[in-house]
Design a protein that fits this description.
The complex is a heterodimer of chains A (380) and B (303). Chain A is α+β, with helices and mostly antiparallel strands. Chain A has helices at residues 61-69, 111-121, 126-139, 155-167, 185-202, 213-219, 237-242, 247-252, and strands spanning 23-32, 35-45, 50-54, 76-81, 84-85, 96-99, 173-177, 205-210, 222-227, 230-235, 257-267, 270-275, 280-284, 294-299, 305-307, 318-328, 332-339, 344-350, 365-369, 375-378. Chain A folds into 2 domains: 8-95 and 171-251, P-loop containing nucleotide triphosphate hydrolases (Rossmann fold, 3-Layer(aba) Sandwich); 255-378, Nucleic acid-binding proteins (OB fold (Dihydrolipoamide Acetyltransferase, E2P), Beta Barrel). In chain A, the strands form 4 sheets. A 6-stranded mixed beta sheet of chain A has the order 6-7-8-3-9-10, with helices on both faces. Chain A has a 5-stranded antiparallel beta sheet with strand order 13-12-11-14-20, with no helix packed on it. Chain A is globular and about 75 Å long. Chain B is built from 13 helices and 2 strands. The chains are: A alpha+beta (380), B mainly alpha (303).
């Protein structure tokens, strides 16, 4: 069987029916007055997993995280951590720590006192605290800043202090609320990889909330895409991208071209669809919808080829159009191609060489085409 | 040209507060200071020397020689003044502490109240200011006197069979000061608590603090600037308070405000009362300046 992208470190406890989830969210609902923030949600998170909750603002991802931390109580349902129900356990007795979106560093304390805060509260001996704090500051490369107050640090440094502080107590689970949201793009990308390395090194379970799909794709082992308090799909980044289970996920993650149409026939793992624009499509599909059923075929822009000549398999999986817009991004170029019926298709091509002879230009007539396994047939 | 005008305007804006301080603080201060160096006299004004230009420059120089520190020496010789200063500071300190004890929970409750309710609560704190201060202090006489409202209520409930003697004691002064100055304590503490990031207490709880521990390790230290401001705003006027001890306190209550008043009005001794006022100012200003220096140094650390 073909693999959908590489699975990191061949780590996949969710695929193993024998493995027990570390965190189990069972039918959790959270209501604020009339508003349902989290709606009958169930999830399993495994030990040492880097799990991302991804969704637009207001989708309930932060509320779910706050319920894991203990700042909110579920209206109904149950959360189980390491075999123990968290119901009624206040935040200060939970073996989880949280890194806050605003970092929530104590402004009246130095960096080292911020990191030592939780350890002091636990009554750890002074010498051990000093050792642990030094270790934590080394981990986040802030040894030189131990005596500074938070307001004399840059945004990136504050983020590291918050991380060190939340890791100092060696929690079983680290919750991260938009951990990189306040950093600029370059720093954010660097820090993403640092966070991944750190999680590997410490062997912790991370649950991160983010609205940034790129961030979730880069860091997470699995992503839960959320919408209106529900989980729409939980899967690895590659599965989410290459095999979205719904129009919402396909549209939310990355760019996509969706061809709506009607099923003509289905056999041998392929279905034939006549799109509303009149393109005959043949696409791999494990399902066998009945003839005449509505179907939507989703194809990512990078899987669409552009050529001046019609491909050999034309008119199947091919259409003629005109270049409408060109966006040059450096590493790749995005073309908007207007088909005969007015539908605009996004296609992108990698700029693998520095200069090409006779590049495609505006208003040129071109053919778009795609392979029989380039797209996915969406169920709804 | 426009640039010059705007520069002039900005200068003018800066000058206004300085001019205010000059006319309403510095000049009166020097007048009082100058009188404190004079001698009392049966005349109008009731002190000497009085400067005039008739004697010319040499006349003025001659009269400057008449200035002396006699009044300050006098203050050290009579133990009454020392006792009055100490008693004022003690009464003001106790009242400030009581005001803090009552004011902090009020400010905390206001800061934690729903956002929509806060303006109303703020208004309720400020509302008593709309009635004359004097009338409010007089009202306390009606409440505290032996046959007053408080005693009537307590005996009606059956808690006491003898009326409590509160009026004309130090307890009445504490009640009066706490009541009158409470808003000055509540407002700065409220403003410090209100702008505090709520996630800080959550972070403290996340790191293992019970709500009480989170309060003492995070919330309270962060509200200290408000506490200090509130305490100064209560303590400073309370030290020199005259109306409350005069109306609510007993004859044996010694406060510097009352001493000053009797020196000025009963004894008509302007020079001594000026000296009393100058010393009072020193007692208040020197510790505050010292405290602010420490604060500024602490702020510089951790850079």
């Amino acid at each position: 069987m073909k693999s959908l992208g590489s699975i990191r470190r061949s780590f996949a406890p969710w695929a193993d029916p024998a493995s027990k989830p570390f965190i189990s969210v069972k039918n959790v609902t959270k209501k604020f007055g009339d508003f349902t923030a989290v709606d009958d949600l169930s999830l399993n998170i495994y030990t040492r997993e880097f799990f991302a909750l991804l969704g637009a603002s207001g989708c309930g991802k932060s509320t779910l995280l706050r319920m894991l931390a203990g700042f909110e109580q579920p209206t109904s349902g149950e959360i189980i951590l390491d075999g123990q129900s968290l119901a009624g356990i206040p935040p200060y007795r939970r073996p989880v720590n949280m890194m806050f979106q605003s970092y929530a560093l104590f402004p009246h304390m130095t960096v080292e006192n911020n990191v030592a805060f939780g350890l002091k509260q636990d009554g750890m001996p002074k010498a051990d605290i000093a050792e642990r704090v030094a270790q934590m500051l080394k981990l986040v490369k802030l040894e030189k800043f131990a005596k500074r107050k938070p307001h004399h640090l840059s945004g990136g440094q504050r983020q590291r202090v918050a991380l060190a502080r939340s890791l100092a107590k060696r929690p079983k689970v680290l919750l991260l609320d938009e951990p990189l949201g306040a950093l600029d793009k370059k720093l954010r990308e660097e820090t993403q990889f640092e966070l991944m390395d750190l999680q590997q090194e410490l062997g912790l379970t991370f649950v991160v909330v983010t609205h940034d799909q790129e961030e979730a794709m880069t860091m997470a082992d699995r992503i839960a895409v959320m919408s209106h308090g529900k989980v729409v799909q939980v899967a690895t980044p590659a599965e989410i991208y290459e095999a979205p289970n719904s129009r919402f996920v396909a549209d939310f993650i990355g760019d996509v071209n969706i061809f709506d149409g009607k099923v003509i026939s289905a056999e041998d793992g392929y279905i034939r669809v006549e799109t509303t624009g009149g393109i005959p499509v043949r696409m791999a599909s494990p399902d066998k919808p009945g003839n005449g059923a509505t179907a939507a075929v989703a194809i990512r822009p990078e899987k669409i080829r552009i050529g001046r000549q019609p491909p050999a398999h034309a008119p199947v999986n091919a259409a003629e159009g005109e270049i409408w817009d060109i966006g040059y991004l450096g590493d790749m170029t995005v073309f908007h191609i207007r088909l005969k019926d007015g539908k605009v298709i996004k296609a992108s091509s990698l700029n693998a060489v520095r200069a090409v002879e006779d590049p495609l230009g505006y208003d040129q007539q071109v053919w778009i085409s795609f392979g029989e396994d380039a797209g996915v047939v969406l169920k709804d | 040209m426009a640039k010059l005008a705007s520069a002039l305007v900005s200068r003018l804006v800066i000058i206004i507060p300085y001019a205010w301080l000059l006319f309403f603080f510095l000049i009166p201060f020097f007048i009082v200071f100058r009188i404190s160096l004079s001698q009392t006299a049966v005349a109008m004004p009731p002190y000497m020397p009085v400067f005039d230009l008739a004697g010319g420059l040499s006349g003025i120089m001659e009269k400057l020689g008449e200035f002396s520190l006699d009044n300050y020496v006098w203050l050290t010789e009579d133990v009454l003044y020392f006792n009055a200063y100490v008693s004022s500071v003690v009464i003001a300190a106790i009242s400030t502490f009581l005001t803090l004890l009552i004011g902090y929970p009020i400010a905390y409750g206001m800061a934690k109240a729903p956002r929509s309710l806060r303006p109303t609560l703020l208004m309720m704190v400020i509302l008593p200011f709309w009635t004359s201060f004097l009338i409010r202090v007089y009202a306390w006489i009606a409440i505290l006197k032996p046959e007053g409202l408080l005693n009537q209520f307590l005996s009606a409930v059956g808690l006491i069979d003898q009326p409590l003697i509160i009026l004309n004691t130090n307890a009445a002064i504490y009640i009066g000061i706490v009541y009158s100055y409470l808003p000055f304590m509540v407002l700065p503490i409220y403003s410090a608590l209100e702008k505090m990031d709520h996630s800080l207490t959550e972070a403290a709880q996340d790191l293992g603090c019970t709500p009480a521990a989170a309060f003492w390790r995070v919330t309270f230290p962060l509200s200290l600037p408000g506490v200090v401001a509130g305490c100064l705003l209560v303590f400073i006027p309370a030290v020199g308070e005259f109306v409350i001890p005069d109306l609510l306190g007993g004859s044996e209550t010694l406060m510097i405000g009352k001493t000053l008043w009797s020196e000025f009005n009963s004894n008509r001794d302007w020079p001594v009362s000026s000296a009393v006022a100058i010393i009072l100012l020193m007692i208040l200003v020197i510790p505050i300046v010292y405290f602010q220096n420490i604060q500024a140094k602490a702020d510089d650390e951790g850079r």
